[in-house]
């Protein structure tokens, strides 16, 4: 992980809502793997001090410029508003590459990539890498509407077979991504699933993959302060150990360092069942995307702020 | 050449800049960015007698110039610290402050006993007494002079050879009274301040932004509260060594707390934004001392010029 500064090479938009910053960040760009993220300082706004985590959408390791990384985002608060105002030659402070990326298959495989809304961003970088390594890539992309689909044109280009779903039917099939999973898995003979998007979508995908014994890797998002493993705010409940040996235990794992990519079968998706937002094809519009947790049983009585 | 060495009561520090508890783990993750031996020391994340799982998410919420957190002291317990973290910290040549927490005097003593027998190389212990006291109707230890005295004297008795610092909460009516209780119970010094209790609400969904509802506010937003707290307690107990903490993000912030009466400072939330910030603050203090012709950082402690 490096502390570096990144110069804005280009700022462009994908569709109506999504901003893209391509940053010249040679060392991070050379090291980053699909699924990893960068933690970006938005210190143009002094009253919002924390960095913002963004998964890497695309990497260009060669070319006339040194390696660049591209991040995409929509404006959700003061931090992303500041980033959306940056233009070429501005610089941002970066920490990265952070976290554990996706594991690529050892043998040549048929990979099904499932993305929801802006959360699909790291799947583009993943698709590029999978194709470079000779794997087959098929894609399901879902969103609330055509305006919330990330670069649907490119999805068609990089996938052998692609399906689009929108809740309002404004593009592709009306519905949600899980409506078409069975059809795609059969048609593409999928061996492994990679998913990224809002938490409730991931929970539904994980349940389907579990029932169909399909290996699944998910990239999750959680509110985060540090990005390098010390603040303990970005945790998600996961199972460790083995159920057969009786050593299975539910622990809070750090999304920033133990994730953001997890084995879909180990994540405890339904701890928070009662409180997740019903609009599950889209991250919450308030603040960063996040799961909301219901009260879990606790042995200890911990202080409010520690 | 300005001397950064600081005498924090019985604890000799290379520099007056420490890492605050809960903001740098036990140092491993941040060691890729900064050498712990170049800092005054690390106050490790609070440890408890047995592992604590912590609270559900959301655990954090950003607020103007700060953040609220309700983590719930997720930690692997004192045994893990002694077996894994402490040997590693000693290899880094770090000055180690062990922060301990619990829900009863007995739980604090259990951790303290283990540190006494297995904690060779620990420079000091910090008591995280902003914890609910189950024996006192869930009131925080740090919110009453009696509970503060009880837990402090029990820890001091359990740790005859390790200096004990009590970390006090600003969420009280009379900080000076509680500081006096901790010092009277044998604390070698004080850490001022822990987080300021706060709450934030998502108005669209009408739910608290933290799963724990109430959290601790940290970051630059609370710095004036910390400066005031250090100033008041230093005026009342000029001999007591104080670790000033609360919203330090720059050398000038650290100097404010030192001038108010802190012998050392601890950097907390700023580590989340820049893992090298404590080192940069140290360099900034050194530059200030050279600019002002200050030979030893001790000359600055409590040196604020007050209108008489």
What does this protein structure show overall?
The complex is a heterodimer of chains A (306) and B (308). Chain A is built from 6 helices and 16 strands. Chain A has 306 residues and is α/β, with parallel strands linked by helices. Chain A has 2 domains: 97 residues, Translation factors (Elongation Factor Tu (Ef-tu), domain 3), CATH 2.40.30.10; 128 residues, Rossmann fold (3-Layer(aba) Sandwich). In chain A, the strands form 3 sheets. Chain A has a 7-stranded antiparallel sheet with strand order 4-3-7-1-2-6-5. In chain A, a hairpin with a 7-residue loop joins strand 5 and strand 6. Chain A is globular and about 50 Å long. Chain A starts with a strand and ends in a 43-residue tail after the last strand. The relative contact order of chain A is 0.14. An 8-stranded parallel beta barrel of chain B has the order 3-4-7-8-11-12-17-18, surrounded by 7 helices. Chain B is of the alpha/beta class and 308 residues long. Chain B has 8 helices and 18 strands. Chain B has a single domain, classed as Aldolase class I (TIM Barrel), CATH 3.20.20. Chain B is globular and about 50 Å long. The chains are: A alpha/beta (306), B alpha/beta (308).
Indicate the overall shape of chain A: globular
Uncertain residue ranges of chain A:
272-299
Which oligomerization state do the chains in this entry correspond to? heterodimer
Question: How many whole angstroms does the radius of gyration of chain A measure?
Answer: 19 Å
* Radius of gyration over C-alpha positions of chain B, nearest whole angstrom: 18 Å
Number of helices of chain B: 8
Task: Report the structural category of chain A.
Answer: alpha/beta
Strand content of chain A: 25-35%
The fold-level CATH name of chain B is: TIM Barrel
Overall strand count of chain A? 16
Number of domains of chain A: 2
The CATH architecture term of the largest domain in chain A is 3-Layer(aba) Sandwich
Total helical elements of chain A: 6
Q: Mind describing the biggest β-sheet of chain B?
A: 8 strands, parallel, barrel
Q: Main sheet of chain B: which strands, in order across? A: 3-4-7-8-11-12-17-18
CATH class of chain B: Alpha Beta
Derived from helix and strand composition plus strand pairing, the structural class of chain B reads alpha/beta
Major beta sheet, strand line-up of chain A: 4-3-7-1-2-6-5
SSE order of chain B, one letter for each helix or strand: EEEEEEHEHEEEHEHEEEEEHEHEHH
The residue ranges of chain B in which pLDDT falls below 50 over 5 or more consecutive positions are none
């Amino acid at each position: 992980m490096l502390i570096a500064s990144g110069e804005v090479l280009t700022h462009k938009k994908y569709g109506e809502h999504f901003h893209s910053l391509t940053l010249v960040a040679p060392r991070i760009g050379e090291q980053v793997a699909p699924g990893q993220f960068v933690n970006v300082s938005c210190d143009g706004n002094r009253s919002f001090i924390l960095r913002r985590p963004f998964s890497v959408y695309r990497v260009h390791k060669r070319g006339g410029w040194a390696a660049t990384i591209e991040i995409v985002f929509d404006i959700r608060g003061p931090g992303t508003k500041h980033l959306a105002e940056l233009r070429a030659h501005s610089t941002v402070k970066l920490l990265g590459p952070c976290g554990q990326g996706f594991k690529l298959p050892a043998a040549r495989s048929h990979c099904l990539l499932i993305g929801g809304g802006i959360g699909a961003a790291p799947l583009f970088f993943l698709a590029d890498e999978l194709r470079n390594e000779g794997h087959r890539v098929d894609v399901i992309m879902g969103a609330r509407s055509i305006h919330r689909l990330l670069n649907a044109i490119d999805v068609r280009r990089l996938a052998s077979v692609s399906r689009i779903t929108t809740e309002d039917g404004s593009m592709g099939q009306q519905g949600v991504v899980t409506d078409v999973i069975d059809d795609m898995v059969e048609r593409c003979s999928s061996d492994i699933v990679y998913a990224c998007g809002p938490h409730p979508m991931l929970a539904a995908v994980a349940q389907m993959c579990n029932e169909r014994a399909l290996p699944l890797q998910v990239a999750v998002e959680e509110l985060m302060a540090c990005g390098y493993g010390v603040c303990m705010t970005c945790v998600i409940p996961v199972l460790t150990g083995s159920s057969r040996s009786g050593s299975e235990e539910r622990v809070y794992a750090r999304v920033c360092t133990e994730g953001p990519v997890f084995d879909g079968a180990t994540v405890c998706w339904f701890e928070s069942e009662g409180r997740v937002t019903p609009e599950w094809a889209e991250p919450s519009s308030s603040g960063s995307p996040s799961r909301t947790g219901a009260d879990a049983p606790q042995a200890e009585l911990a202080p409010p702020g520690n | 050449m300005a001397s950064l060495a600081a005498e924090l009561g019985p604890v000799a520090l290379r520099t007056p800049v420490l890492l605050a508890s809960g903001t740098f783990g036990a140092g491993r993750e941040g060691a890729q960015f900064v050498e712990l031996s170049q800092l005054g020391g690390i106050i490790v994340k609070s440890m408890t007698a047995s592992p604590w799982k912590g609270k559900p998410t959301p655990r954090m919420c950003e607020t103007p110039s700060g953040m609220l957190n309700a983590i719930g002291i997720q930690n692997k317990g004192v045994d893990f610290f002694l077996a894994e973290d402490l040997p590693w910290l000693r290899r880094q040549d770090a000055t180690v402050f062990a922060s301990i927490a619990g829900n009863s005097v007995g739980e604090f003593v259990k951790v303290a006993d283990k540190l006494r027998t297995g904690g060779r190389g620990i420079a000091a212990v910090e008591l995280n007494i902003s914890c609910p006291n189950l024996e006192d109707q869930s009131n925080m230890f740090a919110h009453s002079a009696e509970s503060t005295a009880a837990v402090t004297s029990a820890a001091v008795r359990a740790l005859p050879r390790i200096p004990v610092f009590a970390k006090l909460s600003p969420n009280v009516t009379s900080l000076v009274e509680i500081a006096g209780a901790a010092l009277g119970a044998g604390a070698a010094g004080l850490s001022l301040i822990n987080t300021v209790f706060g709450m934030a609400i998502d108005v669209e969904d009408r739910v608290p932004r933290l799963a724990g509802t109430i959290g601790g506010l940290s970051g630059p937003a609370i710095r004036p509260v910390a400066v005031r707290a250090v100033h008041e307690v230093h005026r009342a107990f000029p001999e007591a060594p104080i670790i000033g903490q609360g919203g330090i993000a720059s050398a000038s912030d650290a100097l404010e707390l030192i001038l108010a009466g802190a012998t050392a400072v601890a950097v907390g939330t700023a580590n989340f934004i820049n893992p090298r910030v404590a080192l940069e603050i140290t360099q900034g203090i050194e530059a200030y001392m050279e600019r002002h012709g200050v030979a030893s950082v001790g000359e600055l402690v409590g040196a604020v010029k007050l209108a008489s």
